Amino acid sequence: MDKLLESVLAAIPLPIAGVDAAGLVTFWNDAAERVYGWPVSAVLGRPLPTIPEELRPEFERLRGAVFRGEQLPPVDTRRRRRDGSVFEVTMGIVGARGAAGAIDTAIAITHDLTAIRAAERRYRALVDAADVAVMIVAPDGTIVDFNRGAAAIFAWQGAPPSRLADIGDLDEELATAKREGRYSGERWCRRRDGERFWADLVIGLAGGAGMPSDAIVIVRDATRRKVTEEQLRERLLEHAAVAAYAHLAIHQRDLRILGEAALAHVSTALAAERTELLCKPVGAAMLEVVQVFGAGASNVGATIPARGPTVVAAAAAARAPVFRELTESDYGAWPHLRGVVRYGAASAVQTDDEVRVVAAYSREHPFDQASMYPLQAISAIYAAAFTRSFAEEQVASREHALSLTLDQAPMIVSTLDRELNFTSLRGSALSRVGLAASDRVGRSPR
Question: What average pLDDT is seen over the chain?
Fold first, then answer.
């Protein structure tokens, strides 16, 4: 392997290992030592120690493909640390040529997926905890995600449906969403056993109007709401608030704006005079107010015990919505509510790290079980958006660091497709030899 290439790889802040045709380690950068735990002196000239035994055949197959000159796509797999722990990674594998022009080293660049997988698990826990159907549908109509709420609402047992058409004809609603960026409406749908139910539908596009992207389909069973016209008007108001906030959460990344919008939409849906957002780390004793919307004095920064007789503490402890008339315990903990509101409701959502509580207060109208739907739904959407933004920030930071490293490398780093045409060129050496990456992409090195 070229000495200049070794210098570049050594500076990249991702674990990189190189092995020869016999599978013995010939390169091991500082990041590999930091992530895996083995110093370079313990691995050079020896078999790669990071491969779990059950994945040894996979490693041998990939290594053989590299030395045959094959170009491999990124691989999701697992690797082992020196302490014996195994973690998920995504790995890019390329061959490096020596002075004679033949491939003499297989180079593997790994990216730790631990944080991303944790965010995915939090997302799955939040989505599966919702009492609404949540489906993600690919542009060709294939269902790529179908939560437990969807299985319950559509009475779907066993393997989930493979296509949206399997659960109903939603072509018109999807067409509207693709044309306008979103759809919200109501219609009759059928469960798998043939029973009809009145459904609230919300469809948003991850990429916006006019762009090919996955559709996020949210369905709520609103059959009871259909019973009377008054209930219908109330649910329409709730539906509009949840739909608007769901659409905002798809596109918005600013967490403060998402929090303010969550409180505003809860206030609209529940006809509440005041809403508050509180949070605490898991295991902490106090809930802290982080955002406020509506009537009364601001109490941002104020804290309240996470266990006690107040509405917010009861919701945080039960991880379930709570609604009732306020008592002297509530007014004693929150003096700013006295004389301003009479009824309270709160819903809590827990992720791996925090408990977040959305509370609503009303002066004249008591809350009921039906009004808990928008409070729960908006709380869950906010928590999911918060988790997503945190995970995206981590991924973007690592991708930015790698991009800067490649652009500043004192060489030319390129990738080629199966026809041996350039697909990308990076590195500061491009300007030294008078090359522009855009002029070479799509062309052969010859």
Answer: 82
Q: Look at residue 29 and give its three-state secondary structure.
A: coil
Is residue 346, in this structure, part of any structural domain at all?
A: no
Kindly give the pairing relationship between strand 25-28 and strand 75-80. Answer: unpaired
d(CA 17, CA 88): 16
Residue 77 lies in a domain: yes
Give a yes or no: residue 56 inside a domain.
yes
Query: 370-380: per-residue pLDDT in tens?
Result: 778 888 888 88
Residue with tokens 């058409």: 165
Cβ neighbors of 228 (< 8 A, separation 6 or more) are none
Side-chain-side CA neighbours of residue 304 (13 Å): 29
Mean pLDDT of 49-70: 90
Overall residue count recorded for the chain in this entry: 446
Q: Are the C-beta atoms of 95 and 106 separated by less than 8 Å? A: yes
Please state the separation of Cα 279 from the chain's center in Å: 20
**Do residues 349 and 326 touch, judged by C-beta distance below 8 A?**
no
pLDDT at 145: 85
Residue 79, domain CATH: 3.30.450.20
CB 432 within 8 A of CB 4: no
pTM: 0.39
Q: Which pLDDT tens digit goes with each residue over 214-232?
A: 888 889 888 877 766 555 5
CA distance 317 to 312: 9
CA distance 323 to 346: 7
**Predicted local distance difference test score (pLDDT) of residue 134:** 86
Q: How many domains does the chain have?
A: 1
